[in-house]
């Protein structure tokens, strides 16, 4: 899907040419933006927001959609990202600090007084229950839902919730058992977005509104296809019962078992119909800001600091106006307009900065001078002369490439069994020269990864420990030799003593594997370095660059046909900010892409969700067990016009331009 013609037009705008941005967005903006300060931010087309509804499936639960779009307009109960750290911002949250019972089996919170939607409607506890009712009725559609472990242990809401009660503006959740309060607040409560009563509707005559076609919202020119009625999800009554976890009374349309009680099945079906309707509306990006459409009326509603003004998904340009309504959350912005200026690729985005078209954007690492330390990077800012201040932002993420423990492809069909040997994973990790990858591939703009909990950016969760498997070719060679392998540096190492090599690994098995990766200049150099260093102990890696979609398709399916893979990333802890491993390393989790199975690791993951003291043990164990190949994490070089102040460079990808001052 290419949009080069429109993007070239956008990139040609000059810093004073607001009319150019306006023409890209919509002709109606000019009347709003004649005077005042317009904040302009470079917006890569590849990350153009595509989902307004704050109830999204996994495909839509992206940083672009959540942190840089929805959160600007609709505030969650608890907001993260208003600072350069990884912590809850109480002043920017809709609710007061949660209060947990002494035994951590219940939690209460209160919606702050005076909070209102832009149409004057109160932001209230019923809007919280509305979101929880949608989750109870249709958990399979929520992108951050995890079904309980085979043991029955719940891994989050709604299964962790026994009951919900409302008194005034206060919501109390009785939980199915003790929880780790930090995890439950940071990763569960933080994702609840109170919804307005006007979003509690469905079409009785067409309850299952399709996403496309003549009966969809888009097919009806941005309008409802039939008369709508209130669904009853906006309420003080929760329709679930998580005391026993998912039951058999009601399964959602995706076949996911729910916590809906038998008595509430009719209500649950109406809540499903609400999700169906609003997903159809969210899919209709062409009418997000088309005056007179039902779609624009719904997405124009806001309780955050901004409201959607124009949206052109075809070009990637969109604008937001300050939400001046009484009761809006967030700071009162000094700007009159927030404009996202599209750019087709990294060089085009850099061009917007070089020509001073935008107030903020990021510089690709390839366009920055090499540095020895991250602390010294801002002094080498390539855009200082153009009037920009540089901030180095390490993402709240961990980077790795997974092993496929189910592989029957490499090692003459025995790759999965080889990967299952801890000594092999220790040897292989010892061949990953992270310092060289950071210095050569990332030009110094990276941080080392040694375990699942990031140590950078500074945070309250990490416990810095010595790297258990630093780069040491000799150590890798010694491990392989002592475990029965006939070392052949520069050629091909094979198993000489099957008993020592490990269960299911016959004599003669070669250490030869495939490695598919989504190419980028930095990753290509890092993969080349790994191939070179692995060859020093006779491990032959056949590296192949493929499309990112191919990598993701392979790793997200139960395929036995790949050995090692890299989508040029890892896992970002957002949304869901607590760095526990239920998504990554618990047996059977959907993003445990290499099918890593370790009963003790799973028990440690479960423990992090129940006690705040268990995260260090989980981190240490996974750092030692090496379930994946840890890789360095690149940082972002954020450039902001030097005359603008109070800019939070969030490691979570959040954006708070309402706080900017000049």
Task: Produce a short descriptive summary.
The protein is of the alpha+beta class.
Description:
- It is a single chain.
- This protein folds into 3 domains: 1-74 and 302-394 and 635-662, 3-Layer(aba) Sandwich (D-Maltodextrin-Binding Protein, domain 2); 76-284, Dipeptide-binding Protein, domain 1 (Alpha-Beta Complex), CATH 3.90.76; 398-634, Roll (Dipeptide-binding Protein, domain 3).
- 25% of the residues lie in helices and 16% in strands.
- The chain contains 18 helices and 25 strands.
- Strands 1-12-11-10 form a 4-stranded mixed β-sheet. Strands 4-5-7-6 form a 4-stranded antiparallel β-sheet, with helices on one face.
- Strand 6 and strand 7 (170-175) form a beta hairpin.
- The longest helix has 19 residues, at 265-283.
- Mean pLDDT is 92; it is low at 1-34.
List keywords for this structure.
single chain; 662 residues; alpha+beta; D-Maltodextrin-Binding Protein, domain 2; Dipeptide-binding Protein, domain 1; Dipeptide-binding Protein, domain 3; 3 domains; four-stranded mixed β-sheet; four-stranded antiparallel β-sheet; disordered N terminus
According to CATH, the homologous superfamily of the largest domain is: Dipeptide-binding Protein, Domain 3
CATH topology annotation of the largest domain? Dipeptide-binding Protein, domain 3
Could you give a short account of the major beta sheet? 4 strands, mixed
Q: Terminal Cα separation, in Å?
A: 38 Å
CATH architecture of the largest domain: Roll
Strand content: 15-25%
Number of helices: 18
Shape: globular
How big is the Rg? 26 Å
What count of structural domains? 3
Could you name the CATH class of the largest domain? Alpha Beta
């Amino acid at each position: 899907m290419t949009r080069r013609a429109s993007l070239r037009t956008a990139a040609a705008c000059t810093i004073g040419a607001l009319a150019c941005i306006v023409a890209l967005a919509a002709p109606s903006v000019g009347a709003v933006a004649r005077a005042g300060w317009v904040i302009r931010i470079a917006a890569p087309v590849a990350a153009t927001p595509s989902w307004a509804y704050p109830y999204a499936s996994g495909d839509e639960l992206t940083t672009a959609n959540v942190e840089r779009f929805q959160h600007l307009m609709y505030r969650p109960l608890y907001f993260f990202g208003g600072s350069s750290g990884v912590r809850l911002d109480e002043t920017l949250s809709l609710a007061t600090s949660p209060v947990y019972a002494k035994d951590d089996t219940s939690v209460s919170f209160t919606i702050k007084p005076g909070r209102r939607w832009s149409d004057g409607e109160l932001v209230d506890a019923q809007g919280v229950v509305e979101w929880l009712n949608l989750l109870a009725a249709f958990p399979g559609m929520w992108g951050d839902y995890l079904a309980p472990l085979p043991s029955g242990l719940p891994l989050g809401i709604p299964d962790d919730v026994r009951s919900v009660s409302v008194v005034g503006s206060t919501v109390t959740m009785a939980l199915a058992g003790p929880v780790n309060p930090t995890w439950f607040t940071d990763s569960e409560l933080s994702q609840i977005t109170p919804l307005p009563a006007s979003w509690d509707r469905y079409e009785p005559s067409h309850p299952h509104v399709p996403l496309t076609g003549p009966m969809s919202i888009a097919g009806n020119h941005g309008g409802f296809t039939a008369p709508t009625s209130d669904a009853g999800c906006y309420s003080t009554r929760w329709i679930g019962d998580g005391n026993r976890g998912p039951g058999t009374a009601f399964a959602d349309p995706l076949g996911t078992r729910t916590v809906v009680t038998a008595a509430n099945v009719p209500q649950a079906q109406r809540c499903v119909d609400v999700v169906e309707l609003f997903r159809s509306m969210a899919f209709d990006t062409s009418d997000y800001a088309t005056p007179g459409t039902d779609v624009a009326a719904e997405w124009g509603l806001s309780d955050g600091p901004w409201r959607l003004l124009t949206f052109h998904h075809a070009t990637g340009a969109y604008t937001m106006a300050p939400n001046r309504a009484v009761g809006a959350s967030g700071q009162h912005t000094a700007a009159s307009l927030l404009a996202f200026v599209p750019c087709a690729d990294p060089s085009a985005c850099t061009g917007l900065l070089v020509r001073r078209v935008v107030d903020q954007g990021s510089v690709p690492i390839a366009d920055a001078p090499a540095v020895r330390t991250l602390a010294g990077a801002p002094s080498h800012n390539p855009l200082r002369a153009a009037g920009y201040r540089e901030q180095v932002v390490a993402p709240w993420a961990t980077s790795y490439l997974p092993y496929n423990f189910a592989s029957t492809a490499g090692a003459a069909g025995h790759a999965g069994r080889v990967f299952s040997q801890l000594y092999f994973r220790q040897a292989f990790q010892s061949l990953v020269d992270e310092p060289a990858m950071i210095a050569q591939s990332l030009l110094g703009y990276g941080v080392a990864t040694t375990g699942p909990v990031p140590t950078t950016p500074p945070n309250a969760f990490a416990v810095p420990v010595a790297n258990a498997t630093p780069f040491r070719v000799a150590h890798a060679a010694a491990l392989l030799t002592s475990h029965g392998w006939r070392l052949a540096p520069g050629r091909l190492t094979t198993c000489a003593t099957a008993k020592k090599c490990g269960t299911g690994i016959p004599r003669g098995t070669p250490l030869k594997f495939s490695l598919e990766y989504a190419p980028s200049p930095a990753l290509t150099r890092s993969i080349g370095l790994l191939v070179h260093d692995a060859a020093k102990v006779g491990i032959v890696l056949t590296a192949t660059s493929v499309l990112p979609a191919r990598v993701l398709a392979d790793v997200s399916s139960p395929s036995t046909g790949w050995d090692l893979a890299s989508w040029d990333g890892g896992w970002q802890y957002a949304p869901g900010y607590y760095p526990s491993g239920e998504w990554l390393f618990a047996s059977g989790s959907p993003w445990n892409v290499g099918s890593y199975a370790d009963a003790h690791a799973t028990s440690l993951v479960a423990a992090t969700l129940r006690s705040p003291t268990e995260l260090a043990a989980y981190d240490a164990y996974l750092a030692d067990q090496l379930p994946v190949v840890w890789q360095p994490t690149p940082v972002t070089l954020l450039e902001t016009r030097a005359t603008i102040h109070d800019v939070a460079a969030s490691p979570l990808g959040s954006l708070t331009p309402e706080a900017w001052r000049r």
